[in-house]
Amino acid sequence: MEKEPSRNLRQMAVDTLRQAITTGEFPPGSHLGEVQVAERLGISRGTLREAFRQLQQEGLVTYGERGRVTVRSISEKDIINTFTVRAALEALAGETLAASYYREEHCRQLRGAVEKMARAAKVSLEAQIEADLAFHELLCELSDNDALVRSWKLLEGPIRMCIMYRGLERALSNMNPGRHLEIVTAIESGDPVKTQSVISEHMVATAQALLFGTVRTRPRIDLTGD
Q1: In sequence order, which ranges of 34-145 are alpha helices (DSSP H)?
Q2: Structural domains of the chain, ranges and CATH numbers in brackets
Q3: Predicted confidence band of residue 24 (pLDDT cuts 50, 70, 90)
Q4: Above pLDDT 70, what percent of the chain?
Q5: Angle (deg, nearest 10), helices 34-41 and 45-57
């Protein structure tokens, strides 16, 4: 059985490195030297290797020759793949909420999250991103589907990297409260099909902004996987 202190140190390392990667302290392509990182975090190299393996599973780092660990670079294909899966998960969550007996309470909580987004817009770009992700995480959590929530959380790191390394300003075009109220309104309607459509369109627009910016002539992308 794994000892609790070792597990805590590993999780601390994972959390610290994840934040450093998704905030740009360790940009894509950065080599994470085992000796240097272990010394910086004050942990053993064995514990660090366990943390690296978890970050690899989350899609944040890659292993190269001789076990060299590097922060993963984000390609256009990565963005499309990430948002294709994200769209499917959040559309399922939205459908579930639209059909739920507790729909009214769920929408009350989601409206509260939208209000936080409006306040965050007056603070900073980073605050807006956090409020936006909090809304979408809440959407998934309210579905009461543990497998869905776990899957979404595994995507959170790559989602943050897509936003960070494709430009914060690009992402903001779909982070305004009004677009998220459209999702809440769709759920309130009690129409699962409509809700699925609204969420899917939101994900397409977000991915398009990250890929092509906010120009009106940007091409439309397909996140259905068909």
Answers
A1: 34-41, 45-57, 76-98, 103-120, 125-141
A2: 4-71 (1.10.10.10), 76-212 (1.20.120.530)
A3: confident
A4: 88
A5: 100
